[in-house]
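Narrative summary of target 7.
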Amino acid sequence: MDINPFWQRVQQLWDLLEHQPMLRTSLGLLTLLLAALAMGRLVRFVILSAMKALGRQPALFWLNDFLHNKVFHRLAQVTPSLVIQFGLNLVPDLSATASHVLGNIALAFTILFMMLTLGALLNAMLDIYARTEHARTRSIKGYVQLAKMILYVFASIIIVATLIDRSPLLLLSGLGAMSAVILLVYKDTLLSFVASVQLTSNDMLRVGDWIEMPQVGADGDVVDITLHTVKVQNFDKTIVSIPTWRLMSESFKNSIQAPH
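Modeled conformation, tokenized:
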């Protein structure tokens, strides 16, 4: 079989690349992107296969909560951006400016998926806690929601700072100047958090309690306590959502309390 024509075409392509730096750089970036995506798929397959196998062990059943909340899925999604971050130095003829900009974008994606991983981890921990005895009387959903909110706010600040190539402290100082606006926007969240802490610390309300609050049409069992709302299932099976802060600012009657 004559392979000389093949090698001639390879040589012609190589000569073309030597005289076309932009083409060589584009091909290098495309190759890096494909390698990053392939590595991401591989890492995801390996991690999920390993965790599913371990999750079948009775002592490691909690790994199924991690899988259900896609903790490992999110963690594997960090791989492509990491490959791009560390692989930009291998792209031929890539300018320092382009390398810096693309590196910042890849870093922003890394932070984004790390944020999503931590958020999924908090959800998994909440599911694990829900199976414990304490969950019947003490709900931590409000605290988890607050932690996720703080996580997302700070991660968003870091992502924006990374993309615009500025220090996160600069953006935080700007938020300090806008504290009045921030307090106005998150007024209900702050009030709900304070009310949730007071309700929990003073043991005023638990899941399973029967409360009466005529001003909002609530007369039934407390079925869920979150950061912003308390859900009550009335005797006629209707659901009433009460803002948590209203339970501290207005009166309600707790007729039947869940057993301690």
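The chain has two domains: 7-144, 188-256.
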